[in-house]
């Protein structure tokens, strides 16, 4: 599991730096951190997609730092964010899939994502699809307008229970349980 920590004064890294860093990496499926449930659902879907495409999987987490604080002093420690994302990846049960965790320290997460992601990136965003446009849906539309290929994973339609089959076996009436 890789871990990258980046930060720039101008909201994120400049485009030339990002393009150089991404060169030669091949196809990558990028999950953008939204909420716990949204990111978990996106990781599961992106894991299947990456396996089918033979691509690498990256989890990008822009960490916004208020203007009153210097960029090198975020309100949440990067070690905590990394541990939280490692736990999410473990919970997603990606079957040993190597996931590159990228925490980008920035001022504006949307601007940072616009600069971080390589042109035409394959991005997976998870969240609840609502009758009104949610923050996650807005983020997906924003990334789509930037020219990225966005897959929105609706958490209401996907179970975020770690092992649904095990849950069903535990809660099923005794006469429906499989006998061993």
Description:
Strands 1-4-3-2-5-6 form a 6-stranded parallel β-sheet, sandwiched between helices. The chain is α/β, with parallel strands linked by helices and 180 residues long. The chain is 38% helix and 22% strand. The protein is built from 6 helices and 6 strands, in the order βαβαβαβαβαβα. It has one domain (2-10, 26-170): Rossmann fold.
Secondary-structure blueprint:
Layout: E1 2-7, H1 15-22, E2 28-32, H2 36-53, E3 56-64, H3 78-92, E4 99-106, H4 109-116, E5 122-127, H5 135-145, E6 149-154, H6 164-171
Parallel strand pairs: 1-4, 2-3, 2-5, 3-4, 5-6
Based on the model shown, name its key terms.
single chain; 180 residues; 6-stranded parallel sheet; 6 helices; alpha/beta; Rossmann fold
Q: What's the Cα radius of gyration?
A: 18 Å
Straight-line N-to-C gap: 37 Å
What is the CATH domain class? Alpha Beta
Count every helix, treating DSSP H or I runs of 4 or more residues as helices.
6
Question: In what range is the share of β-strand residues?
Answer: 15-25%
Tell me the name of the CATH homologous superfamily: HUPs
Summarize the structure.
The chain has six helices and six strands; from the N terminus they run βαβαβαβαβαβα.
